[in-house]
Amino acid sequence: MSNYVSNVLDKVTERNANEPEFHQAVKEVLESIEPVFDKHPEYKDAGILERIVEPERQIIFRVPWVDDEGNVQVNRGFRFEFNSALGPYKGGLRFHPSVYAGIVKFLGFEQIFKNALTGRPIGGGKGGSDFDPKGKSDAEVMRFCQSFMTELYRHIGPSTDVPAGDIGVGGREIGYLFGQYKRIVNSFDAGVLTGKGLDWGGSLVRTEATGYGLVYIVEELLKDHDDSFEGKDIVISGSGNVAIYATEKAQELGANVIALSDSSGYVYDSEGIKLDTVKRIKEVERGRIKEYVEEHPSAEYVAESFDIWNVECDIALPCATQNELDEDSAKVLVEHGVKIVGEGANMPCTPEAVEVFQENDVFYIPGKAANAGGVATSAIEMTQNGMWDSWSFEKVDAELNKIMVDIYNNASTIAKEYGMEGDLVAGANIAGFLKVANSMLDQGVV
């Protein structure tokens, strides 16, 4: 690493102490974009790198709410508006006990480049709270969301900052958040949030988007090497929206999805996961994945979610959470002959795991490219809201497919141009960085 890039990384680490996820995300990007500064010294002169690693605005606030027993609870809320060079800040809200400043920064930083790759006019941001919706009643979730939005509303808007869902924030939470925003501002600004209900400004395909998009980009990689999903054994971690709809699309394309997981463990079904069962357990009953084996006794349940990577497969799609797939798991996957790893979650593979894949010629697609389908479709939802229009499922799906194909081809082309053919990490990072850097350069020092 050059002295210039190394100094910027050192400053990030010093300024953001005890935030390892953010350090990891910045280091991964900075290492791969280093060759850009040889071709474009003007970026260094304009301090693009120093500016891009620092959020434009960091908002931290308390969220008091009352539980069903009448007790006052207090959580912490976050919104980090990272970069608006391409458009309004865009990124999800995560409600999970693990949320703290470092998690939100890492997610917001990744979002800058992911959003740039979509080709849509959206900047990067992220937010959330350490509130845990699990085990809470609908009334408790509603009261929390209303309190959260009572502070957040003053910082967002259709042309300013447009949040969406993430872990712990689905249609229920988006509905409560939007209702409170509408009440406060006295205006039906549909474009202020995405992931809305279909009856009030939401978009078809938004629920399926991240999972479908992941499969579309992997499909394009397979096509690029004269191959297809047909007959491939696939292991997918997680059992939320991303995992469920990646499973759905992969099965449509002829693949055999043999394992899914949640935080308690994983199920293995050699005959192929029965998706209707999983959808009912996870989406309707809000149950645990282990309940799957009660209906399909030939399947096996293992009470350790990370052990899912011991299952032999052709394609691995980590779709659960950050750093879920480590070096040891990567070595097991390689030993078992995995050919492709595509990230459906944000940064689910540790740097050591990525190194193992790259050293063993496994095709690896990083999350900022592979899971961009969600935010791409959020941007399509924003377009529909701006037009006061509603597109068909087929039209949105076709646009999503095109965006994911373009992301793959753009990352592949840029990687080759910079002498790193096949390195989609470098390709995606450089492609996203160039778009943002050029926009920042055009707009001056702001």
From TrEMBL:
Glutamate/phenylalanine/leucine/valine/L-tryptophan dehydrogenase C-terminal domain sequence ranges? 203-444
Record SUPFAM superfamilies: Aminoacid dehydrogenase-like, N-terminal domain, NAD(P)-binding Rossmann-fold domains
Q: Where is the active site?
A: K126 (proton donor)
Swiss-Prot/TrEMBL keywords = NAD, Nucleotide-binding, Oxidoreductase
Record site: Important for catalysis? D166
Q: How does it assemble?
A: Homohexamer.
**Protein name per its UniProtKB record:** Glutamate dehydrogenase
